[in-house]
Amino acid sequence: MRNLARGALALTLPLVLPAALCAAPAHAAPSGAAPSGAAPPSARDGWRLVADEPFNRRLDDRRAPWKPDGDGPSSPYNVDMYDNDGAYFDTVGGPAFRAQLAKMKTYRKSFAFGKRGWLTAELAARDNDGDGRPDAPPTLTSRGGVAHLDEPSHQAGVVIRSTRDLPAEYRVEMTLRGLDFGGQRGGSWDYPDGRINGYSPDGCKTNFPWASGGDFARPECEWADVRTDSNGFYYMSIMDYRQVAPHNNVFIHGHRKVAMDGYNRYKYTGSGLLYCNPVTKQYEPYSAGTGNGVNALFMTDDRRYAAMPGTEYLMQSECGFRKGGAIVSAADLRPELLPERPYTFAIERRAGAYTMEMSGVFAHVGRATFRYTRSFVQDGEPIWHYNQRPGEYDGRFNAHWTWKGPGGELTDRDTWPAGSAYPDRFMIGDPHMNFYEGTAKVDDIRLYVPE
Question: Is 13 a residue whose pLDDT tops 50?
Answer without folding.
Answer: no
